[in-house]
Amino acid sequence: MSKAKIAVVNFETSGDKPANQEKMIDFITQAAEQGCDLIVFPEESLTGIGERGFAVASAEDKQTICDNSELVPEGESTQMFVDLARKHDMYICWGMAERDPERDCVCHNASVLVGPEGYVGKYRKTHLVLTENFYHFPGTEFPVFDTKLGKIGLYICYDMCFPEVARILASKGAELLVSMTGWPNITGTDDASGHIEYMTFQKARAAENMVPVVCATLCGQYLEGHSMILGATAGSVIACAGYDEEMIVAELDAQQEIAAARTASMGTVDLLRDRRPNLYGDLVAPSTFAPYYNVDPHQAD
Fold first, then answer.
1. How many Å apart are CA 50 and CA 78, to the nearest integer?
2. What does 114-165 look like in DSSP terms, one character per residue?
3. Looking at residue 60, what DSSP letter applies?
4. Burial class (CB in 10 A: 0-12, 13-18, 19+), 273
5. What integer pLDDT is reported at residue 164 of this predicted model?
6. Are strands 237-240 and 228-230 parallel, antiparallel or unpaired?
7. Which of 57, 76, 106, 229 pairs as cysteine with 239 (C-beta 3.0–4.6 A)?
8. DSSP label at 100?
9. Which residues, at least 6 apart from 289, have a Cβ–Cβ distance to it below 8 Å?
10. Measured distance CA(45)–CA(219) in Å, rounded
11. Within 10 A of 253 (CB to CB), how many other CB atoms are there?
12. Residues 215 and 202 sit within 8 Å (Cβ to Cβ)
């Protein structure tokens, strides 16, 4: 992956898709004026997450998400972003509700990537959190896309909590991990507890795979913001936004970052090369452990 200028957007979304589109176009224009090669928007930035987020299952919110969903890549919005990517010679990655072409009012939480060459690909979120199963159907694949910027892997929000996702992408040769989220601000205050948790997950994914991570995050009421660009060495912070809607821009040489990470303080260390997959069978075997939330607290010992 060659040196690239990357824009990442703290974005406040809504159920008003045309309004979201207009704001996204404005950020894309700003990024183009700064000579950016890639711009990343957060999870569900195009179509919105409903008034209640994923904390509460709401038939009204589900209908809004369903109404705003589109086919990918045939949908109007994807084609619009393809045109903008070609116009500005830029890659654009955003989150949206993808309509399932075979099932009525069934949607996927998708990350879509387009570029100067047109539609590149999509990733469907595989790990659904809280009531998200009420709104979305999970994906089952972990694609890595060849682009003019190098190999790019995508994942969404809760996926970051499962190290297997980023590891699969890295083992497939991803040189840049592009993530998007709507990480919640549980306390509703600026006490930093939420974004520190989210940053810890993302920095771990970068450090353990020795690959840079870019993450765009929703902002607004009860959302953390803090979109960021992380280096491959120990998840070093190259750029980070705050709580409010804004765009951060930084230059990133992913190949240089990867090379530096693998020749850092411990010497020539490669955490992918030094794995022992033949020992990891228990990781994918059915678990006999009963999590605390499946245990009846009233059951006598």
1. 21
2. EETTEEEEEEE--S--TTHHHHB-------EEEETTEEEEEEEGGGGG-HHH
3. H
4. exposed
5. 96
6. antiparallel
7. 229
8. P
9. none
10. 10
11. 15
12. yes
Q: How far apart are CA 46 and CA 290, in angstroms?
A: 39
Q: Residue 89 carries which DSSP code?
A: T
Residue with tokens 């821009």: 249
Query: Amino acid identity of 27?
Result: F
Tokens of 216: 């765009």
Position 265 confidence tier, pLDDT thresholds 50, 70, 90: low
Could you tell me which of 231, 154, 223, 153 has the C-alpha nearest to residue 194?
A: 223
DSSP 8-class letter at 30: H
Q: What is the DSSP string of 275-291?
A: --GGG-HHHHSPP----
Considering only CA atoms, which of 36, 39, 61, 58 is closest in space to residue 48? 61
Please state, in angstroms and rounded to a whole number, the distance separating the CA atoms of residues 235 and 237.
6
Both tokens of residue 168?
């699969």
Looking at residue 107, its amino acid is C
Per residue in 61-93, pLDDT tens? 888 889 999 999 999 999 999 999 999 999 999
Angstrom distance (rounded) from CA 175 to CA 6: 14
Residue with tokens 């116009």: 87
- What are the percentages of helix, strand and coil residues in the chain, rounded to 5? 30, 25, 45
Residue 188 pLDDT greater than 90, yes or no: no
Give the residue from 171, 168, 165 showing the smallest Cα distance to 128. Answer: 165
Residue 106: what pLDDT?
A: 80
Asked whether 183 and 198 are in contact (CB, 8 A), the reply is yes
Does 4-294 carry CATH code 3.60.110.10?
yes
pLDDT in tens, 104-140: 778 999 999 999 999 999 999 999 998 888 889 999 9
Residue 293: the pLDDT is 53
